[in-house]
Amino acid sequence: MAKKIIYDFSTNKTVTRDLTSEEQKELDAQKPSAEKKLEILRSERNFLLSETDWWASSDLTMTDAQKKYRQDLRDITKIFQSMEDKDFKFPEKPTE
Fold this sequence. Notes:
Elements: E1 3-8, E2 13-18, H1 21-30, H2 34-51, H3 64-79
Antiparallel strand pairs: 1-2
């Protein structure tokens, strides 16, 4: 259970106590669900893809590194369900 820190200005002391069950429920309700975390991941991934859409213009040829970067972005939700997952990181954007 989470702790609540309370500062009493009249005594200038800090008190730490466990959250009540109601406070814990409220805190838990504020945390994003697994669905929401995946939605956030997809949204960020889509933004990163949109930044490189111009690479796929018909008058340009993407490098292998650019193709791999974009494919790795598309595949990221096959590996991770949240940006909070252990070892999560977006692929490195190529400079070429």
